[in-house]
Specification:
heterodimer, A: 111 residues, mainly beta, 9 strands, B: 119 residues, seven-stranded mixed β-sheet, four-stranded antiparallel β-sheet
Amino acid sequence: QSALTQPASVSGSPGQSITISCTGTSSDVGSYNLVSWYQQHPGKAPKLMIYEGSKRPSGVSNRFSGSKSGNTASLTISGLQAEDEADYYCCSYAGSSTPVVFGGGTKLTVL
Amino acid sequence: QVQLVQSGSELKKPGASVKVSCKASGYTFTSYAMNWVRQAPGQGLEWMGWINTNTGNPTYAQGFTGRFVFSLDTSVSTAYLQISSLKAEDTAVYYCARGTVVAATFDYWGQGTLVTVSS
């Protein structure tokens, strides 16, 4: 069982916006603004899309944004494109004993 | 440009050992920690732990103690993951990832190494 809870799947049509949630606890997501998000296409390595909750690495489209409320972090993708179809994983710092926890992943389908 | 290049796929029998390498280039190797992440077939990402590339001190996540060893050869900017007494359930893609554990941020990843354990 994954430490962070994500929906198994979400879908949207091209041009629409979707949001993927990532629910943790007061020991991880709720305590730190240190959530990152990764995009993974089939057979490829994960790619960092968002870090420290809402920051985008250089080269990542501004269609991707991150936020947090309480114990839940969210990734929003606006203006959906076919190339956004992939698996998305959230990740959070969780303190010194178990520093890093991942979510179970969400499969995004662009209809 | 930053690159992490991992060794190729491995097919091993139960009980054997395997050593996966991750060669870094395009940055100062000792300036960033190296992490290892496992992905079992059809499953999600699982953080295995990290190694301090300055001191060589490894930290293992729960479930990855005993049979898993992280090591370095800083002279060739390479990190290693060795798994001993392999079991069928170790079958997975193993990734190295440069990053900052305290920020849970992994900015560059290797291409992954598939380790298959089968008799």
